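debug: dumping io for the single-chain case to check the tokenizer round-trip. Nothing else runs in this session.
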Amino acid sequence: MKSSMFVLAVLSASFSADAAGLAKPLSPGQLSQTLKAGKSVKIAFANRNSDGKAVGCIGVDGAKTNSGAHLMWFRCDLPTSDHPNNQYWTLTPTKVENEEGVYITIKNSKSKMCIGVDDASPVPGADIRQFDCKNHANQKWKLTTIKRGNRTALSIQNYDRLCIGVAGAMRVGAQLKQEKCNAEPDQDWRVIPFRVN
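debug: decoded output
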């Protein structure tokens, strides 16, 4: 969408940028207001592993552009002006019948494919992959605010009310899966606004 918002005034200070020079995260409230207004937002999803020493982002395995490629947890990288980064995603509101709140599609900046659940499975443990954008139920997502003491984060929850998490240890190349929502660190995402290195 032409009206994508890359600059939002209120940023969260609870998640410092890592050495790669990522922008500070958007606040859940500002992101929610933008999506409710029907505007698209270009972002990266980042989280920190349980010991707090590594920051990782959702990316496409091998930066592939084919349907069915796995989504994994990688070290966060900034794109360059002439090379789109497979870790950046465009969030676009989508209408869902008989449901409250704002559901979104999440399209990859490089491949132009959407985050979806393998085989549209409603079962915990199914892989998260990228697919041709077809507005199917397994490609509809909702960002839900999580309260953790004095800070807030977001879970990425799908149409079956399962959340995107990192399978096993949060390490480079770990597969993303859908899991029962539990507010553990692997499901605790920050939204990093798009910027070019």
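debug: round-trip ok. The chain has one domain: 28-193.
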